[in-house]
Amino acid sequence: MTPVLQVSNLRKSFGGITAVDGVSFEVHEGEILGIIGPNGSGKSTLFNCVLGQLTPSEGEVRIDGKPTTGLRPCDLNRLGVSRTFQLLQVFPQLSVRNNLILAGQEHQGTMASRLFGAADAGLGGAAAQMIEFFRLSHVAEEPAGSLSYGQQKLLDAAMAFMAGPRLVLLDEPAGGVNLTMLASLRERLQTYHAERKATFVVIEHQMEFVMALCTRVLVLAEGRVIAEGLPQDIRKNPVVIEAYLGH
Amino acid sequence: MNRLGAIAFACTIVLALVLPQFLKGYGIFLLSMWAVLSVAALGLNLTLGYAGQVSLAQGAFVGIGAYTAALLMQAGWPYPAAFVCSALLCFGVGWILGYPALRVQHHYLAFVTLAFNTLVFLVLRNEEWLTHGTYGISGVMRPVLLGWSTGKPLAYYYFSLGMMALVAAALWWMLRSPWGRAFVALRENPIRALSLGLDTRRYTLMAFAIGSSLGGISGALYAPLVQFIEPNSFALALSFNLLLMVIVGGSGYFFGPFLGALIAVLLPEWLRVTEGYYLLAYAAAVMLMMAFFPYGLFGMVERALRAMRLKRVPPAPTLKAERTRP
Amino acid sequence: MASFIQLLVSGLATGAIYALIAVGFTLLWQTSQTINFAQGEFVMLPAFFVLAAMNFGAPFWLAALIAIALSIAILGVVFKLIIVDPMLKHGVLPLVISTIALSLFLKEGAKDFYSSQAQPFPALVPAIDLHVFGAVVSMQSLVVLAVAIITVVGLHLLLNQTRLGRMMQATAQNATLARILGIPVRRMVLYTFLINGVLVAIASILISPIYLAKFTNGETLGIAAFLAAIIGGFNQVRGAILGGIILGVLDNLSAAYVSSQYRAAFPLIILIVVILWRPQGLLGRVEERTV
């Protein structure tokens, strides 16, 4: 079975600093892979390389077996890859509904069909479904900038899911979210994952969230993979504990 | 707010239709100039206000449009054909210029367009065999459309007003479509837009090319208005002027360019009192404006309205537990 | 061959002046994200300070010093505090517009308050010609070259060999990190504006004998600054120097060998070509954006 995501010997240097130093791993369909590691271990850089935001200095990325190293994020989106962002990135002046329509409109059709077709690009129904799923009905017409932080996080996830992606990369989805909202977020992610058989890769700092959500965990430190395995084993792994405490 | 806006809009339309009846030749000329330059400003607003690109070449596109229309008409082409040609040519040139230029960093387009504007000016000035160089092209005819002659000042005014309205309507329609949403995304958060599958490069290029073609349309309307065109009118000064129109009106607001163009056309008249120091006063005014109202007049209006609305409606009590910001 | 050497030398001299202007421009961009569209007018103006001072009876050397001081004060301090600082919090675009308006303001100001006629400007040295390798080289060119080189070397020493200079470089490369390291970032940025004030004043004094003091000088000089900075590499001071020299030499050579009508087109075409094929310039580093 071709892994959904394959990263081989990825290396990224900025001048004298090597942020990612030869990282390789695979993610199979239906997995929820967690990537953890102390600050500065290269997690975000790794994401940015996989997602086309940065060009790796060396190494290869394959999605469903096809090489995608260096493809632009918009091309990756059309291959079924989606992401959420660590720092909130919704469109503050657009309504929640329009944010969602926007999130889906570029995934289908052509420039011409978007100009001459329906004003909502035929996505009114899909957007309504997503609003329901993430329980944002009461703020559907509000500008996204006026939502609370937790609601924006939900919207962020909803936008990533609008195009029905096979592979979703979540960058610190739990950051800054309070406990109640966190449980809600995790539950929604798990439901989506179960219903759509999607594959997730999650960068996170919050251990509880990772342990509860992920099926497998990868640990990065100083740009390298230092451990890989089931969440409960990683938790007890002395190398991992050392990496966190040693900093 | 919508009601207020609708009233203002209706008043403006009535004024635009009725006022010229009471004005003499020069006043009608100024209003016609406003209509013509609004089109160019609308185009630049698309490029700058929606796609976020600083273009200093809009003046050159007005020039290309004007010369194309004038030369084709001299060669015997009917005005509608010349008009369409101007629009298409400028779209094409805009696309060719933007294609490589937009692959690089943001601020570079400003310089590329600056260089392009100067190059166009040099070509217009030097290639006398085509453009008559500094002698310019005189005797540009005003079109006769379906038996209606636009020769008289009032007639040409209504013609330019009508064209401006058509262009504005087309632009409004485009911005209501998914393209409009994409342009807002481009302006607000291009990185996120990219990750959502939005081809930012393609949309930016499209905005730049459409904006340039509107410049060309403006030029095709400009030539018969002034009936004598020469290279100096289309140098960097015009590009700066158009840029200021967009900024003063409010970059990114649909009606901003109309207001900005009105001010730019009327200002020399108002500042006549400064007698020759007019440009100095204009420049100083712009700098002050940037310091206090960088979002332009429409931006100012929006802020004022928002502030008024917030004062009128007391904020709902929130015990939302989710308001934890890191 | 003789005329080629002549052109080369005078090209190097002009190029050195362009380099000064471009270096100031690049420094402002690097340290404070300021794209100064008025840089050309900044070079046009100090010449008028000199002429005004001389009108009040000051000898040339004193007038030059006064001009440099005024330049530092007005084009450095006042520019930064009154125009740049308030604008930056609104973003880069309002600042760009302001500097465009400023360029118009300075240009009209010179025209209205001094003169719209080109003014002769005293040269640094009398117009003596030297004969080198059979070519006629003006003393003027050599002196310009010498002054420019001294200024650039001085700047280089300042930036690389002094603690102050290294702090300025740190600020340019990574302001946040510099702040964490305890470097007074705001003061460093102010210093770059002051340095720009000095550079444009020197450039003005060097170029005005050749171009004459005209209120329109800013247009050509401004474009020269942008071209040189971009060709060399927008994020490198060394690039600005290289760009300036290349521009000066090419400009002079093209004036002789290419039609004079399109002389101004040559550098513009080079600019477009460089931006399209090697946007980071000859010496620049490719910049990437991360999330």
Helix content of chain B: over 70%
How would you classify the helix and strand content of chain B by structural class? mainly alpha
Q: Which topology of the domain at 5-90 and 163-245 in chain A does CATH recognise?
A: Rossmann fold
Q: Total number of β-strand segments of chain B? A: 4
Kindly list the characteristics that best describe this protein.
heterotrimer; B: 326 residues; mainly alpha; ABC transporter involved in vitamin B12 uptake, BtuC; two-stranded antiparallel sheet; two-stranded antiparallel ribbon; 14 helices; 2% strand; globular; disordered C terminus; C: 291 residues; 11 helices; 2 strands
Structure description:
The complex is a heterotrimer of chains A (247), B (326) and C (291). Chain A has 247 residues and is of the alpha/beta class. Chain A has ten helices and ten strands. The radius of gyration of chain A is 18 Å and the shape is globular. Chain B is mostly helical and 326 residues long. Chain B has one domain (2-308): ABC transporter involved in vitamin B12 uptake, BtuC, CATH 1.10.3470. Chain B has helices at residues 2-18, 25-50, 58-74, 79-101, 108-126, 128-131, 153-176, 178-188, 190-195, 200-226, 236-249, 256-270, 278-292, 296-312; strands at residues 137-138, 144-145, 148-149, 228-229. In chain B, the strands form two sheets. A two-stranded antiparallel ribbon of chain B has the order 1-4. A two-stranded antiparallel ribbon of chain B has the order 2-3. In chain B, strand 2 (144-145) and strand 3 (148-149) form a beta hairpin. In chain B, helix 2 crosses helix 12 (256-270). Chain B starts with a helix and ends in a 14-residue tail after the last helix. By secondary structure, chain C is mainly α. Chain C has a single domain (2-277), classed as Orthogonal Bundle (ABC transporter involved in vitamin B12 uptake, BtuC). Helices cover 74% and strands 3% of the residues of chain C. The chains are: A alpha/beta (247), B mainly alpha (326), C mainly alpha (291). Chain B binds chain C through residues 54, 100-101, 103-105, 107-108, 110-112, 114-116, 118-119, 122, 125-126, 191, 236, 240, 243-244, 247, 251, 276-277, 279-280, 282-284, 286-287, 290-291, 294, and chain C through 35, 83, 86-87, 90-98, 100-102, 104-105, 108-109, 112, 219, 223, 226-227, 230, 261-262, 264-265, 268-269, 271-272, 275-276, 279, 287, 289, 291.
